[in-house]
Amino acid sequence: xxxxxxxxxxxxxxxxxxxxxxxxIDLVRSSAIERMxxxxxxxxxxxxxxxxxxxxxxxxxxxxxxxx
Length: 68
Fold this sequence. Notes:
This protein is an all-alpha fold. Helices cover about 75% and strands about 0% of the residues.
């Protein structure tokens, strides 16, 4: 199972670099997009951003599992 988490982190890093996750993972989506635009420029690809957030959502599920 840990391998799956590492795969998700690698996939996110492949899209926006090693430190991008830590810059935005705890932000609400609108603030995260704003931060990404500051880091990567105004012309970020929204399709790529949506893939990125899909991966981050999966990482957050690992980090904060739903209560039983």
